[in-house]
From TrEMBL:
The keyword Iron-sulfur applies. Residues 21-97 form the 2Fe-2S ferredoxin-type domain. It holds the Pfam family Fer2_2. InterPro entries: 2Fe-2S-bd, 2Fe-2S-bd_dom_sf, 2Fe-2S_ferredoxin-like_sf, 2Fe-2S_ferredoxin-type, 2Fe2S_fd_BS, Aldehyde_Oxdr_Iron-Sulfur, Beta-grasp_dom_sf. GO terms for molecular function: 2 iron, 2 sulfur cluster binding; metal ion binding; oxidoreductase activity, acting on the aldehyde or oxo group of donors. Coiled coil: none annotated. PROSITE patterns: 2FE2S_FER_1 (PS00197), 2FE2S_FER_2 (PS51085). The keyword Iron-sulfur applies. This is 2Fe-2S iron-sulfur cluster binding domain-containing protein. It comes from Hymenobacter persicinus. It comes from the Bacteria.
Length: 174
């Protein structure tokens, strides 16, 4: 028997069945149909409903960048975004950037430059760096540092992350 409670207006409300709605998301080129509570973040939709656990939950408050994904090519914090807001958008996660046998240039550069230690921040760093490259604003090491400053690395791998991103940027320019 579902549990009910009474609202201030005296009406009975169902407490065990929150309202959900159908949400269509295009993730890594594949359309997914989900039934979600409207307050589900994009981060939770990816991790809890689609098993795309490459995207990490760090702070869940927009402060660390671990949850960065690309939406229509632009980097966003998926913990600050409701899944319903991204209906019909093209979402790319770390799983969609490359594969184990065919790493993206940034993924390869992170490996080559040893740009991680525990790896927890790495998917967010790489998605953010991809967004940075898409924006085309960073030209120097100082600009890369500034424009990647929303992505924290508790292991302090910053100088190697910078080298990796700089290499891909330089290769793009060449
Ligand atoms: S988990 Fe989203 S910014 Fe930290
Ligand atoms: S590699 Fe550990 S937090 Fe960045």
């Amino acid at each position: 028997m579902p549990e009910t409670f009474t609202t201030s207006s005296g009406a009975a409300a169902n407490a065990s069945l929150p309202p959900t709605r159908a949400v269509k998301l295009r993730i890594n080129g594949v359309e997914k149909q989900l039934q979600l509570a409207p307050w589900t973040t994009l981060l939770d939709a990816l991790r809890e409903y689609l098993d795309l656990t490459g995207t990490k939950k760090g702070c869940d408050h927009g402060q660390c960048g671990a949850c960065t994904v690309l939406v229509d090519g632009k980097r966003i914090n998926s913990c600050l975004t409701l899944a319903v807001m991204k209906e019909g958008a093209d979402i790319t996660t770390i799983e969609g950037l490359g594969t184990e046998d065919n790493l993206s240039p940034l993924q390869q550069a992170f490996v080559d430059h040893d740009a991680f230690q525990c790896g927890y921040c790495t998917p967010g760093q790489i998605c953010s760096a991809q967004g940075l490259l898409n924006e085309g604003k960073a030209k120097t090491a100082a600009e890369i540092r500034e424009l990647m400053s929303g992505n924290l690395c508790r292991c302090g791998a910053y100088s190697n992350i910078l080298s990796a991103v700089q290499e891909v940027l330089d290769n793009q320019k060449a």
